[in-house]
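Private note to self, pasted from the team thread so I don't lose it. Backbone tokens:
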């Protein structure tokens, strides 16, 4: 081994003697020195910023109503509106008169910040009718003398948020403020320390590593190491090496390992330096960051294997550098094409929701397409073809009967919950070949709809829960035998004629209130504030509402003339209220899975905690569904893996007897008791929820761009080393998660980012082995 170790050490010495290496060292030291003064401090979240508002239109409408509606004068909303600056009040009064007034969200934020500086607008009696967080109740229990100025502003902010429910984005109670050399950055970050650590580990550090290690250092490394093999092949050097009793292949591999010395020396300094800065300055001691060292050297070995063979074949460093750059460009183009197909072909086709309507299977996709499975052609037949660039959001399908399914399309809803244009309920009926037809108008910003068969259709939006009479919904059906109010035309005329046109009604509509067809069912003192989730029981006679860390059980009133549901139990969870959650009902049990917390099983009637179970390492819970036996839940992690949660023994336990990978969504048909599991983009398995036996499967045929992706792009990406995807490997190693979910606080429409960990490693490792084998074979058989 000594001769080979001597070759490797010689390569280290050669790298240390390179001027480029020392230039890289100096650049790394300068970068680390520039980053060293960065720091942070935590402070209470007080002032409003424009990104705090869920939607400025709703906020504008609520404040205008607070000024113009006499009934709001003594309420919390009215008192906050009356305390706004006079110039802002004049604009809001014009809004109340029906004028189109454009008010910037920055102006609204500044106006509310001026309100916080005063205390005369608050009244204890007015705020008792609002839904106050535990933090606000604790602050209200203290006198002004017990509170600092910052705590008083925090209390004022919470009071304003309580007066304007459904308007603000969920924010942590404490915000991060970055500093540099002791000076504060202009504005605090819109998240707390826990979220700051997650964003830094999951996105910032991997992105920094990708650019510094995946581009700059690799390019410099190729410049330095391109001459190693040509120099070795010089007559004097090569004859001296071959005169020793050594293997040509091992000699060449030793040179290859020694050539990685440049990147190893640079990466060690950069990664260790960033790790120390993150720990000492940001309190993020993430030892997983050190995984970037072997990953970076491994990534360099892919390109170096090309340069290595080119230098061996043509014996010139210039040509070796040129060929390596051409190879890098080819890999970049293939990766870009693959990423394009992932973003615009595969991911948009993934099933987001599905229902079984008789013998028909209907579904919606991530791309906003409503589709029906054509059994004769064995393909998904689209019922709508939206422009994906508009970012439309299709609400999950809701089954009204075996012949009717309901949904809605929010124009631009993926980026704005209020969308653009009117929001109409869409009915898909067997009699019209399941073509979506517009029906009654939904409340603005509706995110989910739930059916109470024979009684009502419930819509959940940012303003609350509202219900429409079942006969009013069926009045829009094309089948007149199911309608008790007449035909579609009559229903439309009745709806339009019943819609009052006064300014107050329009304001209520703008702020997400009731419409002519829908009326609120929330009891007094219960509001919907993001993040929010709703789960309806099997018999649709009660539901569970999760809103900003609070759980409320709502039961339908026994009085048929009373639309308001009753709040029979309430519970406020410990911890940060801004955390999102996933909830599901199975019989009399309730599953609650909050971000970064263990899964809790509660009694659905009393909301008393029964048991809990720690999360697995597959990431956060993305969705969950309760099975009909009342003892089990199926949960889907953000990574796409799934398992069962069994509560039969009195304590919760994970059960992997029904395990699927790459799950897109799950649904349970209550009539057939079949569990529908959508996986691998658009495949569906129908599983008996009692025996867990697969009853039938949907395996659609590929066509169009999906066919090109499967049989052209995928093989090309398989044969090409996926160097770009190694960044996802870094993100998974550094962040400690194989996936993350973005945008899951508002509804079950969060986008999952699943990191490809093993695929790029295997493809790159295979390529390096092939290239080194070719180089060794060529060097062993060539007479130099």
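Design output:
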């Amino acid at each position: 081994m000594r001769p080979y170790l001597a070759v490797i050490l010689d390569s280290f010495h050669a790298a240390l003697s390179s001027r480029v290496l020392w230039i890289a060292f100096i650049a790394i030291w300068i970068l680390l020195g520039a980053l060293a003064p960065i720091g942070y401090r935590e402070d209470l979240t007080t002032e409003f910023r424009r990104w705090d508002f869920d939607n400025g239109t709703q906020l504008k409408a609520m404040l205008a109503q607070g000024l113009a509606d006499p009934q709001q004068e003594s309420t919390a909303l009215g008192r906050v509106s009356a305390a706004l600056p006079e110039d802002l009040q004049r604009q809001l009064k014009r809004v109340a008169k029906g004028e189109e007034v454009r008010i910037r969200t920055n102006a609204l934020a500044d106006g509310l910040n001026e309100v916080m500086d005063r205390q005369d607008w608050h009244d204890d009696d007015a705020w008792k009718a609002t839904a106050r967080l535990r933090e606000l109740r604790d602050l209200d229990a203290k006198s002004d003398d017990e509170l600092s100025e910052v705590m008083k502003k925090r209390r004022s902010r919470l009071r304003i948020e309580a007066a304007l429910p459904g308007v603000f984005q969920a924010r942590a109670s404490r915000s991060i403020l970055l500093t540099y050399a002791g000076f504060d950055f202009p504005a605090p970050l819109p998240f707390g320390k826990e979220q700051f650590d997650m964003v830094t580990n999951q996105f910032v550090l991997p992105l920094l590593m990708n650019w510094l290690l995946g581009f700059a250092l690799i390019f410099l490394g190729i410049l330095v190491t391109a001459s190693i093999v040509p120099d070795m092949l010089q007559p004097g050097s090569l004859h001296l090496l071959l005169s020793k009793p050594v293997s040509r292949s091992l000699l060449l591999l030793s040179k290859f390992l020694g050539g990685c010395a440049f990147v190893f020396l640079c990466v060690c300094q950069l990664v260790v330096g960033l790790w120390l800065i993150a720990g000492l300055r940001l309190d993020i001691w993430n030892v997983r960051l050190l995984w970037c060292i072997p990953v970076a050297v491994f990534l360099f070995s892919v390109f170096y294997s090309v340069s290595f063979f080119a230098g061996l074949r043509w014996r010139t460093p210039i040509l070796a550098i040129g060929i390596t750059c051409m190879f890098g460009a080819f890999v970049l183009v293939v990766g870009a094409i693959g990423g394009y197909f992932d973003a615009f072909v595969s991911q948009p086709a993934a099933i987001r929701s599905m229902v079984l309507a008789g013998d028909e299977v209907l579904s919606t996709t991530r791309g906003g397409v409503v589709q029906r499975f054509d059994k004769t052609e064995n393909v998904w037949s689209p019922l709508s073809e939206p422009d994906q660039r508009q970012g439309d959001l299709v609400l999950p399908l809701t089954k009204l009967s075996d012949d009717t399914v309901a949904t809605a399309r929010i124009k631009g809803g993926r980026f704005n919950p209020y969308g653009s244009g009117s929001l109409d309920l869409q009915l898909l009926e067997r009699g019209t070949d399941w073509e979506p037809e517009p029906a009654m108008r939904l409340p603005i910003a509706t995110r989910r709809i739930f059916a109470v068969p024979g009684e009502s259709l419930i819509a959940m939006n940012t303003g609350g829960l509202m219900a429409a009479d079942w006969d009013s919904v069926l009045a829009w059906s094309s089948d007149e035998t199911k309608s008790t109010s007449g035909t579609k035309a009559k229903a439309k005329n009745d709806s339009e004629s019943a819609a009052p046109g006064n300014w107050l009604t329009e304001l209520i509509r703008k702020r997400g209130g009731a419409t002519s067809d829908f009326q609120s069912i929330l009891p007094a003192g219960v509001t919907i504030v993001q993040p929010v989730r709703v789960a309806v029981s099997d018999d649709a006679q009660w539901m569970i509402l999760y809103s900003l860390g609070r759980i409320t059980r709502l039961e339908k009133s026994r009085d048929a003339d009373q639309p308001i549901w009753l709040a029979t139990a309430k519970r406020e969870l410990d911890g940060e209220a801004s955390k999102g959650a996933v909830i599901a009902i199975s019989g009399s049990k309730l599953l609650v899975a909050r971000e970064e917390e263990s899964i809790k099983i509660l009694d659905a009637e009393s909301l008393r905690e029964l048991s809990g179970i720690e999360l697995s390492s597959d990431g956060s819970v993305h969705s969950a569904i309760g099975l009909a036996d009342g003892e089990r839940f199926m949960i889907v992690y953000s990574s796409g893996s799934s398992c069962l949660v069994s509560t039969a023994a009195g304590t919760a336990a994970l059960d992997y007897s029904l395990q699927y990978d790459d799950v897109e969504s799950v649904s349970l048909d209550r009539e057939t008791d079949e569990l529908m599991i959508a996986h691998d983009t658009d495949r569906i398995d129908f599983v008996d929820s009692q025996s867990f036996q697969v009853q039938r499967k949907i395996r659609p045929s590929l066509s169009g761009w999906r066919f090109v992706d499967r049989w052209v792009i995928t093989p090309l990406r398989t044969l090409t080393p996926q160097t770009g995807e190694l960044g996802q490997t870094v993100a998974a190693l550094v962040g400690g998660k194989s996936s993350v979910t973005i945008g899951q606080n508002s509804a079950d429409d969060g986008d999952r980012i699943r990191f490809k960990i093993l695929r790029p490693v295997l493809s790159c490792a295979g390529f390096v082995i092939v290239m080194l084998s070719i180089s060794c074979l060529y060097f062993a058989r060539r007479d130099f």
